[in-house]
C-alpha cells in the first residue's frame, strides 16, 4: 500500500470520530465562548453583546468566589480520599499472590466507578438519612449516638459527606491506574528489599511510591479535572445546599443558566474555570518535568 493510499485510509477511518468531536465538543465550545460575551436568558430572540461584562460580574460575585473556594476544598478531599484510597487499595491488592483472588478483588473495587452518579447519590443519601440511615444507626448502636448528625442538612458536614460519596465512586478508576503501574515495577526490587529485612510498609514507601512518579502525576491532574466537573453527585444529593454549602463552580454555573436564566454569566463562569484548569495543568506538568530532570 502506497503512502498516499495509507494516509487516505487513515483519514477516512478517523472521519466519523472527528465529525462526532466537532458536533459534540468543538461546536459547543465555540458556542459557549460566544455566549459568554452576550447577555441572554436562553429564550429571547435577541442577544445583547456585553463583551467582558459577564466575566467582570462573575469574578466580583461573592457566591462565585465562595463556590471556587469550595471547589478547591472538594479537590483536596478528592485527592486525599479517592486518590489516596485508590493507591492504598492498589498496593494491598498487588500483594495478593493468588491471581484469581487478585482479579476478583480488583473487579469488586472497580464496581462503584461504573455506577451512575445519580445511583451513587441515592445510595449515599439513604446512608446519611438522619433517622433511618445506616450511619446514624451504627452510631446509635455503638453508643456514639451523640455524634449523629443530619449530615446532608448541616452546613458544616454536608460538603465532606458528599465528598466521601464522590470519592467512593471515583477511587476505582485511580486504583486501576495505580495497580497497572505497580505491576510494572521489577519484582526483583521487592525481593531484594525483603531479603534485607524490609517490611511491607518500607517496601511500599521506598520502592513502590517512587516507582509511581508518572502515574501519580497523571492521577493528580485527572483528580483536579474531575473536581472541577463535580456536579452529578452534588446535585443528586443536595442540589448545592444547604445554604449553598455544597455549591461548587459547576453547580453555580448550572443555577445561573437554568435557575436565573443568565446564560452569558454561566458561560463565563464555565470558561473561566476551563482556562484556570488549563493554566494549572500546564504549570503542574512543567513543574513535574523540571523536578524529574533536576532543573
UniProtKB/TrEMBL annotation:
Q: One Pfam family name from the record?
A: BPD_transp_1
- What kind of membrane protein is this, topologically? Multi-pass membrane protein
TM regions (residue ranges): 72-93, 105-127, 157-180, 215-237, 257-285
Q: Which domain of life is it from?
A: Bacteria
- All copies of the ABC transmembrane type-1 domain together span 68-284
Location in the cell reads: Cell membrane
Please give the SUPFAM superfamilies that the UniProt record associates with this protein: MetI-like
One CC-aspect GO term = plasma membrane
The primary location reported for this protein is membrane
Q: Sorted alphabetically, which keywords does the UniProt record give?
A: Cell membrane, Membrane, Transmembrane, Transmembrane helix, Transport
Biological process terms from the Gene Ontology for this record are: transmembrane transport
Q: Which CDD domains match?
A: TM_PBP2
The UniProt family comment states: Belongs to the binding-protein-dependent transport system permease family.
Name-wise, this protein is Raffinose/stachyose/melibiose transport system permease protein
Amino acid at each position: 500500500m502506497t503512502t498516499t493510499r495509507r494516509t487516505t485510509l487513515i483519514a477516512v477511518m478517523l472521519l466519523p470520530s472527528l465529525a462526532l468531536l466537532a458536533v459534540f465538543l468543538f461546536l459547543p465550545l465555540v458556542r459557549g465562548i460566544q455566549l459568554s460575551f452576550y447577555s441572554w436568558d436562553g429564550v429571547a430572540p435577541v442577544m445583547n453583546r456585553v463583551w467582558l461584562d459577564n466575566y467582570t460580574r462573575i469574578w466580583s460575585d461573592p457566591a462565585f468566589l465562595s463556590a471556587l473556594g469550595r471547589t478547591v476544598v472538594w479537590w483536596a478531599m478528592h485527592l486525599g480520599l479517592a486518590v489516596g484510597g485508590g493507591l492504598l487499595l492498589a498496593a494491598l491488592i498487588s500483594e495478593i499472590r493468588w491471581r484469581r483472588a487478585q482479579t476478583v478483588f480488583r473487579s469488586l473495587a472497580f464496581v462503584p466507578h461504573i455506577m451512575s452518579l445519580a445511583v451513587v447519590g441515592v445510595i449515599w443519601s439513604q446512608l446519611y438519612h438522619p433517622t433511618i440511615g445506616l450511619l446514624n444507626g451504627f452510631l446509635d448502636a455503638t453508643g456514639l449516638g451523640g455524634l449523629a448528625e443530619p449530615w446532608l442538612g448541616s452546613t458544616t458536614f454536608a460538603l465532606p459527606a458528599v465528598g466521601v460519596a464522590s470519592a467512593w465512586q471515583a477511587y476505582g478508576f485511580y486504583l486501576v491506574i495505580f495497580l497497572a503501574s505497580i505491576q510494572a515495577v521489577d519484582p526483583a526490587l521487592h525481593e531484594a528489599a525483603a531479603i534485607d529485612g524490609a517490611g511491607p510498609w518500607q517496601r511500599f514507601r521506598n520502592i513502590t511510591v517512587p516507582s509511581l512518579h508518572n502515574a501519580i502525576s497523571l492521577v493528580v491532574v485527572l483528580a483536579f479535572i474531575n473536581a472541577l466537573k463535580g456536579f452529578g453527585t452534588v446535585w443528586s444529593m443536595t442540589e448545592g445546599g444547604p445554604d449553598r454549602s455544597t455549591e461548587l463552580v459547576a453547580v453555580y454555573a448550572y443555577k445561573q443558566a437554568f435557575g436565573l436564566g443568565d446564560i452569558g454569566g454561566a458561560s463565563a463562569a464555565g470558561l473561566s474555570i476551563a482556562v484556570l484548569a488549563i493554566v494549572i495543568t500546564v504549570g503542574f506538568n512543567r513543574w513535574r518535568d523540571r523536578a524529574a530532570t533536576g532543573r
